[in-house]
Design brief:
The chain is rod-shaped and about 140 Å long. The strands form two sheets. It has a six-stranded antiparallel β-sheet. It has two domains: about 260 residues, no CATH class; about 220 residues, 4-Layer Sandwich (Phosphatase 2c, domain 1). Helix 1 packs antiparallel against helix 2 and helix 4 crosses helix 9. The protein has about 650 residues and is an alpha+beta fold.
């Protein structure tokens, strides 16, 4: 509804503009002293074809109403009804014929953008001028106001000049400045075009031209009208009227996405045509002034100034039209040469490039003959560029496929590695919750636990020095080694794992690892630390660091002896294990989360009232809030293990 309202408003505005301009120009012509009694000469002839082509039906109706208003300014009579109709046709026929006859490029919408469309515009403009003015001349002859030739000859010379030269120039300039305001009959272009259905229009146009020519040849010089004149006048008036009323659209088959074919922008050839028509218009106007200067001085010696003025204007415009048509012929020849040598090749390059961009197809330009050296170089450059782009795209596509395969492999590896990690534990003796988040798809962090018996739980957390798939494999081997050595004490587990990793460590990676065994029967926690972060323990009600002198990391040196440490444990003993991705997490300003913040966070937790899962969620939330807006630089792993105080803790 809103779009229709905008179009309606534009039509109203276009109608008002056309009424004011045509009425003003006609009144100006009437009031010029030298032309006061010579109504056949009106400079408004340039505006009618322009108004119809630019504003559509509203422009045609505006021209008719504007002419009627100017007639009210002078002497209104019966002939002015014919004047109303003739001026409507003068603007309406170009609009109607342009969108129905002589289709260009399969009936795609476009205006004067090529040699072909220029010839089409000239033919339609000349025909519309001849048809509308012959109708007016025949009407005046029937009414006995003026003989056909006496009125038709000067009027057709004046209006053809103004419509074809000044009008075309005005339309080209206006179309370049305001293409969005040109009225387009979308209903025509949204349906298929069948050339045969418009055959009656071509026949009527031909009959009108033949009738006008015969009317000029058989016009009687005396005041008596012959039967031939009556018949020819009837043919001109009736066929021109019927041609105007025939429907524009004659198809029911709707095309798809035809509006995408509308060309509102002006190309290179349109620019050449615009510049050339501006030159032609001003050149012919200057030529008219030059040849009329001496003649105007000459007729001052005669008493019948009006008679000589009439002949002067006819002769001037006859010569000016001849000169103008020669210029147009020269323009057509020039455009034809430019099309063959330049624009056709440029347009083909542009179309091929558009197809290449839209479809991604490697379409080489055909070999074009008779092109200038610059265009030939451009064609070779385009073919070379398109070939290079295709090669580059092929390389990129292959790289993308490889990366997708790698990504898929990494995801599968991640699923396998995450699958070997143990599930959370919650029984009558122990509660364990864990969280792991790799910096990449897979990482080098891992944790593990093994229930050795009802009273003993082995816990382990480790961090491989590297990241990605190599670290993940190194981590998997380390995890398996811990499981294989689970029956040993913590320091012996580290000793055995270190020796095996050293023997197979071709890439120079290392592992930090913390291994501990919680024994609820003996109420002791035994552990060994191979260069890993200090854990935090709750042994009673207070969170504190479990600091010992750390031993060497795993995988660098063989036969390293690791120290066994032990502490007594109380009811509700709890330990928090983590990798350096926790305390070294960074915010957007590159600040670390830090040990102090981690310690304070752990002290704020309540192991007596909160489950291990709830505590771990609080730690995760604090980390995520701190690191918001920053990228994760290291793997994050956290593990909370709690000794149940005689009853199961609540797990969510």
């Amino acid at each position: 509804m809103k779009i229709k309202t905008i179009k309606f408003k534009r039509q109203i505005i276009g109608f008002i503009i056309c009424v004011l301009i045509l009425a003003g120009l006609n009144i100006l012509s009437i009031t010029v002293p030298a032309l006061k009694n010579y109504g056949k000469f009106r400079i408004s002839g340039f505006f009618s074809v322009f108004a119809g082509m630019f504003f559509g039906p509203a422009g045609a109706l505006g021209c008719a109403v504007g002419n009627f208003i100017s007639d009210l300014y002078s002497d209104l009579g019966v002939a002015d009804i014919y004047g109303f109709w003739a001026n409507f046709l003068f603007a309406w026929l170009p609009y109607r014929l342009w969108h129905t006859l002589l289709p260009v490029e399969n009936h795609k919408f476009q205006y004067i953008t090529s040699n072909t469309t220029l010839i089409k515009y000239i033919l339609i403009t000349v025909f519309s001028t001849v048809a509308s003015m012959s109708l007016l001349s025949s009407s005046f002859d029937i009414l006995g106001m003026c003989k056909f030739n006496v009125f038709f000859t000067p009027v057709i010379l004046y209006d053809t000049y103004f419509a074809l030269f000044w009008g075309t120039t005005a339309f080209l300039v206006a179309y370049r400045l305001f293409p969005q305001y040109v009225h387009i009959p979308y209903n025509m272009y949204n349906y298929s075009y069948n050339h045969k259905r418009y055959l009656p229009d071509y026949i009527m146009c031909l009959i009108i031209i033949i009738a006008v020519i015969l009317r000029i040849l058989f016009s009687e010089s005396d005041g008596n009208r012959s039967l031939t004149e009556d018949i020819l006048d009837a043919v001109i008036i009736s066929f021109t009227t019927v041609l105007a009323f025939l429907p524009m659209r004659r198809s029911r088959k709707k095309e798809l996405n035809q509006q995408t074919l509308f060309k509102r922008t002006a190309g290179l050839q349109s620019q050449i045509i615009t510049v050339f028509f501006v030159f032609i218009t001003f050149s012919t106007s200057i030529f008219a002034l030059i040849i009329s200067y001496d003649t105007f001085n000459y007729i001052n010696y005669f008493t019948n100034i009006k008679y000589h003025l009439n002949n002067l204007l006819v002769n001037i415009f006859r010569q000016v039209n001849i000169c103008g048509f020669l210029f147009i012929l020269l323009l057509i020849i020039l455009l034809n040469w430019i099309e063959k040598r330049i624009t056709r090749s440029v347009i083909e390059i542009a179309d091929t490039a558009s197809k290449f961009v839209e479809n991604g197809l490697h379409t080489e330009l055909p070999k074009l003959n008779n092109v200038c050296d610059e265009i030939s170089i451009l064609i070779k450059s385009y073919n070379k560029m398109s070939s290079d782009i295709i090669g580059y795209i092929t390389t990129v596509e292959e790289q993308v496929k490889r990366e997708q395969n790698i990504k898929l492999t990494m995801e599968m590896a991640a699923n396998v590695l995450f699958g070997i990690l143990p599930k959370p534990l919650n029984d009558n003796k122990f509660s364990l919750s864990a969280y792991i988040k790799p910096a990449r798809t897979v990482g080098g962090d891992f944790y593990d636990y093994i229930k050795l018996d009802d009273d003993r739980l082995l816990i382990c957390i480790a961090d491989v020095s590297s990241k990605g798939l190599p670290a993940a494999f190194f981590m998997a081997v380390s995890s398996i080694l811990v499981k294989c050595n689970r029956n040993f004490s913590p320091e012996k587990i580290l000793y055995n794992v270190n020796n095996y990793l050293y023997e197979t460590n071709s890439e120079g990676m290392f592992v930090t690892m913390f291994v501990g065994i919680i024994d609820t029967k003996r109420k002791v926690f035994e552990f060994a630390n191979a260069g890993h972060n200090y854990p935090i323990v709750w042994n009673g009600n207070t969170a504190q660091w479990l600091k010992t002198k750390p031993d060497l990391v795993l995988g660098i040196f063989p036969e390293v002896e690791y120290k066994l440490n032990s502490i007594d444990i109380y009811d509700n003993f709890q330990i928090f294990l983590y990798t350096d991705g926790v305390n070294e997490a960074e915010d957007k300003d590159n600040n670390f989360f830090g040990n102090e913040r981690l310690e304070n966070l752990c002290k704020s937790l309540n192991p007596l009232a909160e489950s291990t899962n709830t505590q771990l969620k609080a730690i995760r939330s604090s980390l995520e809030e701190f690191s918001k807006g920053a990228s994760q630089s290291d793997d994050i792993t956290a593990l909370v293990v709690k000794v149940q105080g005689g009853s199961k803790t609540d797990e969510s």
